[in-house]
Amino acid sequence: MNKQTEHSATKLLLSSIIESPENIVIFALDRDYCYTAFNRNHKQTMKTIWGVDIEIGMNMLTVIKNPGDRKKARRNFDRALAGEQFTLIEAYGEPPNRFYYENIYSPVYDDSGRITGLSLFLTDITKRKKNDEELATLRKQLEDLVRQRTGELEAAKNELEKDVAKRAAAEQQLTQTLEELKRHKSRLQTIIDAEPECVKVLDLDGNLVNINPAGLEMIEADSLDQVWGLPILNLIAPEHRALVQSMHDRVLAGHREILVFKLIGLRGTQRWMETHSVPLYGANKKITGLLSITRDITTQKQARDALYRRDAILDAISTTANLLLKTPSWTEVAQDVLDRFGRATGVSRVYIFKNHVDSDGISLTSQQFEWVAEGITPQINEPALQNIPWIASGMDRWLKTMQKNKPICGLVKHFPDSERAILEPQDIQSVLALPIFVDQDLWGFIGFDDCIAEREWSEQEISALQTAASALGFSIKRKQVEKSLTASEEKFRTLFENSRDAIYLSSADGTLIDFNHSMEDMLGFSPTELRSISIENLYADKNDRRLFQQIIESRGYVKDYELTLRKKDGTLIDCLITSSVYRNTAGHIIGYQGIIRDVTDQKRMTKAWITLRHLAKRLNEVWEISEIGPIVAEEAQNLFHYDAFSLDLVDEDLGILAGIYNEDTLEDGLAPVPVPSNSRPLAGMKDNIILQGKPRVINRKRIPKKPTTVMFGSNRLSRSLLYAPIFLKEKVIGVLSVQSYTVNKYTTEDIALLETFSDHASAALVRARQQETLKEALENARQGERIKTLFLANMSHEIRTPLNSILGFTEIIEGLARDKLGTDEQQFFDIVRISGKRLLHTVHEILDMSQIEAGTYRLRIETVDLCQLMDDLVQEISIEARNKGLKLEFKADTKTATIRADRHGISIAVGNILENAIKYTETGNIVLSVKSKSDHYILTVRDTGIGMSPDYVKRLFDTFTQESEGFTKDFQGIGLGMAIAKHHLEMNHVSVQVESTKGIGTTFTLLFRDII
Questions:
Q1: How do residues 63-106 score in pLDDT, each as one tens digit?
Q2: How many angstroms separate the CA atoms of 828 and 510, rounded?
Q3: Residue 867 in this model has a pLDDT that exceeds 90
Q4: CA dist., res. 121 & res. 45, Å (int)
Q5: Residues 478 and 9: beta-carbon distance below 8 Å
Q6: Dist. CA 36–CA 29, nearest whole Å
Q7: Rounded CA separation 190/266 (Å)
Q8: Which of 277, 664, 875, 950 could bridge to 292 as Cys pair (CB 3.0-4.6 Å)?
Q9: Is the pLDDT at 490 greater than 80, yes or no?
Q10: Which residues contact 762 (CB under 8 A, 6 or more apart)?
Q11: Does the predicted model carry a pTM greater than 0.70?
């Protein structure tokens, strides 16, 4: 395997290792504290703690913003760079982003043993740290409480002893004291019973005499009677009974003790416990027993043990990764790898199975390697573990799970019967199986059996071992790659000669050593000629050659590098070159090897496609005929590089050809510029194109002595001309032309491209003409709308002015004649006042609707307190409700509800909804409410009115609509109120929903999102 292949494999393997663990932070620094590698977890951690997106090469000390953390980090980095490997628990970040980590610092060595940097494995223990601190605080509080209550009881006991001599005189006081003691005892017992951790009392012989409910649950007892008098050692794991007895002896000697041990409940459940024990004293200050506070630390113990095992697994992964890299074949070290993983995990058996397919296409798996712990029966020679059919054996669940790159993990007793039939004869109690993938294929799996205990695997352990499985997969892939390389070398020469691209091998000075036939055909040289010339002479620009050498010598390779080469006949071709250097044993460049592809036609087609796409996009945004010509001319210049351009349209009525846009190169070396367009009768070359309806290319080899046609403004005759008619359906409506003062500039191959330009121009012309028609129609419509609006405004003014006068004078006359009016006469005034207000309201609605439809209503967006606005609106409209005997309420769950809106529009919209509610409600109440949510406010109007049918609710907000039943029969109005309300709400971006039931009532719900 060459160095480059080995380097790539190493890079892939290390990348897999560093990215695989899901809960582990990994990074590496050089001696200047700059990043050389890190995984996604570390990148996310630095973003969370310091708010920085880290990059390779960035100095980590500049990222750590806390001076203390930065100083501490530098001190630890220097220790590792000095060759020390150590583990620390450290905290980083500012509150509340303060995190605790268990850090493994290690120096990084190169092949010569020199320290080139350092690496860190970090495990986030923030949650565990905080849990331990909280548990310590709770334990101290409980100890203080017990100490306080014990002191109280001791003080009460001493007080009783002092009062014995005075019993006759203080018997009543003694009774009260005893009652107080009972209350203290009751309170203490209540506290103990409520304590979430186990509180128990043992006598001098270690028998259980009292225990709280939490303790009963912990030892799996139903009541105190069930365990009263039970020796506590009966509940202790045999291997820890001596330790517990020794602790009891020290406590009964007057000491305080802390001990961690394993407890076995009455139903056999095993838990790890941490107990704090203190002596209990009697009346004569003699120890009568002991008090213990015990907490379940099983989860913490398992997590801590899992971390230790994970660290051991990571060490094994690091060692085996180097081993796999240095060994040509992974099978040579497979047994050593399994041995390391077996000892690191502490399991009974580690093995590797490989998948394969039989002649009938059935998927099988067979055991390849195995390691077993001392005292465990090997299974490597069992015939039953060879050629196992995944589906027929009942192990299809394993296959489907691992094909999804997920592990098989659990206790065997919980597995399906078909799987237990294979696993239980091997004495397996728990198993972990991890898939091994080679590329995207499930190659096999690595398994870990525990035949001694029912082991529960932690996520950290599984994550670390998944990295090991990935490392094995990459090592297997490397072996396959090496095997395929040998076969590839045999095929190389065939591919070399048959390749359609040019392939070459040259010396460092640019002399061609070897090349294929495609290179000869591409450049037009014979083999002898190619070997006699320098590659530098093939470059169209010698500077390109020097730049190319600088790049490839610095990188070692180039890919798809663009350059222009010159063929033997002088023709220039665009090429893409992919090349690399090859060196001698001293590392010096001795030559180049590469592939050259002629992309001249490809680039031309790509450029044409991009230009046409850009042309279509620009023309789609054009609506004026005058804008079409400049755009088509600009895009055509990119492809045709013309000297003159014209776009002409036919006017059949006048019989002329009208130039709408012309360009010409007025002086040599200058880009085309617009020249005045002209119109002329149909006669000449362009007219023939129009009459025939066919494109044409013309190349004049000679210039007439007296040219009959002067092109544009340059007084020069075009030598190469390209024409394409512009069609509308099957009718020619114009002609497009590009011309050059260089002969043979255009050929018949360019015709199809110019026709495509013609098609785009035709579509744009049609669209522009349609736009002119639409503009004219729109202006007519706007004029009609302005006339309607003016009419409505004038009519509203003419009606409102006398109507206001009528209502005003009616009120004056009514006031003057009120004392002389009878009931009948007073009704006349009421009718006039009500009818006048109704008519005035109708005029207001018509005027509002005309402003909205004409687009003349102007929003005045401001900061509005929705609660205050609704309160004012209710106060204003409450008189109408009271006159009908209705109860109008306003409720809000917040004092202020600030929004950005048009105050007038919101007031009109909600006011119209409230007026409708009052109008269509005969009895009951109307409730207006405002509720505050996290990012919006909800306004609700709920009434107990006549309700609406589902069909009418759908067209409630249409103009001039009312429901036939009820609305038009018993109630007045022209059906504009809800339409006006909906328009104002939409202009303020307020959504509205309506729910209504006939005979029950209606609810309007408004959603305000533009809150402050």
A1: 888 888 888 889 988 998 998 888 888 877 667 667 777 888 88
A2: 115
A3: yes
A4: 13
A5: yes
A6: 5
A7: 25
A8: 277
A9: no
A10: 726, 727, 728, 733
A11: no
Q: To the nearest 10°, the Cα dihedral for 715, 721, 724, 726?
A: 0
CB 565 within 8 A of CB 572: yes
The CA distance from 581 to 743, in Å, is 45
Average pLDDT over residues 552-568: 87
Residue indicated by tokens 């005058």: 626
**Phi and psi based region of residue 554 (left: phi greater than 0; alpha: psi -120 to 50; beta: remaining):** alpha
Percent of the chain with pLDDT over 90: 20
Q: Is 273 helix (H, G, I), strand (E, B) or coil?
A: strand
Angular region, 885: left φ>0, alpha ψ -120 to 50, beta rest: left
Quote the DSSP letter at residue 665. -
Say if strands 898-902 and 679-681 run parallel, antiparallel, or are unpaired.
Answer: unpaired
Q: Is the CB of residue 686 less than 8 Å from the CB of residue 711?
A: no
Task: Count CB atoms within 10 A of the CB of residue 770.
Answer: 11
What backbone torsions phi and psi does residue 262 show, to the nearest 5 degrees? -105, 130
The DSSP line for 47-106 is: HHHH-----TT-BHHHH---HHHHHHHHHHHHHHHTT--EEEEEEES-TTS-EEEEEEEE
Residue 586, pLDDT above cutoff 90: no
- Comparing CA positions, the residue from 899, 998, 916, 1001 lying closest to residue 957 is 916
Residue reference for tokens 């296959």? 399
Both structure tokens of 787:
């006339």
Distance CA 878, CA 125 (A): 64
Give tens-digit pLDDT for 926-966: 999 999 998 899 999 999 999 998 888 888 888 777 765 44
Contact assessment for residue 81 and residue 61, using Cβ atoms and an 8 Å cutoff = no
Please state, in angstroms and rounded to a whole number, the distance separating the CA atoms of residues 982 and 849: 11
Q: Residue 660 — pLDDT band, cuts 50, 70, 90?
A: confident
Taking the C-alpha atoms of residue 994 and residue 668, their distance in angstroms, rounded to an integer, is 74
What is the C-alpha separation between 270 and 208, in angstroms, rounded?
Answer: 19
- 325's CB contacts (< 8 A; 6+ apart) are 6, 9, 10, 13
- Model confidence at 642, pLDDT cuts 50, 70, 90, reads confident
Residue 955 contacts residue 964 (beta carbons within 8 Å): no
Question: Is residue 838 a contact partner of residue 832, using CB atoms and an 8 Å limit?
Answer: no
Integer Cα distance of 9 and 481 in angstroms: 9
Cα–Cα distance, 849 to 858 (Å, whole number):
13
**Nearest-angstrom CA–CA distance, 712 and 644:** 8
Report the SS3 class of residue 724: strand
Q: What is the 3-state secondary structure (H, E, C) of 893-930?
A: CCCCCEEEEEHHHHHHHHHHHHHHHHHCCCCCEEEEEE
Contact criterion met (CB below 8 Å) for 556 and 4: no
**Contact 872/910 with Cβ under 8 angstroms?**
no
- The helix (H) or strand (E) run that includes residue 858 is none
Token pair, residue 753, equals: 């491209």
Q: Is residue 594 helix, strand or coil?
A: strand
174-194 burial by CB neighbour count: b if 16+ within 10 A, else e?
Answer: eeeeeeebeeeeeebeeebee
pLDDT beyond 50 at 593: yes
Kindly state the average pLDDT of the residues 41-58: 87
Three-state DSSP at 187 gives: helix
Give me 810's structure tokens: 């009616």
More confident residue, 201 or 671: 201
Residue 670 has what DSSP assignment? Answer: P
Residue keyed to tokens 């402003």: 851
Task: Quote the distance between the C-alpha of residue 911 and its chain's center.
Answer: 44
CA 827 to chain centroid: 72
Short-list 729, 734, 719, CA closest to 632: 734
How far from chain centre, in Å, is Cα 737?
A: 52
Mean pLDDT of the region 388-410: 91
How many Å apart are CA 678 and CA 279, to the nearest integer? 117
